[in-house]
Amino acid sequence: KAGVTQTPRYLIKTRGQQVTLSCSPISGHRSVSWYQQTPGQGLQFLFEYFSETQRNKGNFPGRFSGRQFSNSRSEMNVSTLELGDSALYLCASSATQTEASTDTQYFGPGTRLTVL
Amino acid sequence: AQTVTQSQPEMSVQEAETVTLSCTYDTSESDYYLFWYKQPPSRQMILVIRQEAYKQQNATENRFSVNFQKAAKSFSLKISDSQLGDAAMYFCAYRANYGGATNKLIFGTGTLLAVQP
Fold this sequence. Notes:
The structure holds two protein chains of two kinds.
Chain A: E1 5-7, E2 10-13, E3 19-24, E4 31-38, E5 42-50, E6 53-57, E7 64-68, E8 74-78, E9 87-94, E10 105-107, E11 111-115
Parallel strand pairs in A: 2-11
Antiparallel strand pairs in A: 1-3, 3-8, 4-5, 4-9, 5-6, 7-8, 9-10, 9-11
Chain B: E1 3-5, E2 10-14, E3 19-21, E4 24-26, E5 32-39, E6 46-52, E7 60-61, E8 64-69, E9 74-79, E10 88-96, E11 106-107, E12 111-116
Parallel strand pairs in B: 2-12
Antiparallel strand pairs in B: 1-4, 3-9, 5-6, 5-10, 7-8, 8-9, 10-11, 10-12
C-alpha cells in the first residue's frame, strides 16, 4: 500500500496570507490527524478527523481549521498567517474502525511551511 | 493531563554497540498505548515499536526492544547492534485507549541519537 502523502512538501508565504495543506491517508484509513512540529514547542496535536467529522481538537487558535472529505483525504487551513506559524506540519492516518476506537498512526513526510 | 518526558536531549553510541533511551510518562488512566517513533533527517516519522499497557510482556521488533515498567511509568527503548542508519531523533509518545478515546498522540521532546562509526 502507498503511504501517507502530503502536498505540497514546501511552502513559503507572507504574514497575513492563508494557506491550505493537503493529506491523503493510507488506502482504507478513515482517521486523519494533524500535528505541528516546531523547535520551541515540539510536536503538538492540532486535530483529528474520522469519517468527515472532527473528533478531537488541540489547543490552537481558530485560525487553524481542517476538514475531511468522503474519500478520507484531509485538508488543513491556516488563515492570517503569523511568523510563529512557521513549522513542519505532519499528517498521520490510522485504520480506526469506529468513532469510539483508536489505532496506530502512520505519518506522512510533512509540509514545511515558512512564513516571512 | 497526560505528559511524556524524555530527559536525554542527546545520546551517542558506537556502531554495533547497545544504547538505551529513556522515557517516563504520567497518566491516571490504566488503558493506553506507548510508542517510539524515529525521525531521521528526512523528517519522515517512522513507527519503531509499540506497547499496550495491559500486556506485561515487553515488545520487541528485531534489534529494538522496550523495557516497560507500568508501576514506575517508565518506557525505555533499547537498540542493539546499533547501525549508522539508526541515527535520528527518537520520540516517545502516549495514546489513551479507553472507550471514547481518540488517536491523539502526546509526544516527549525527543532524544537525538548519534551513531559513531
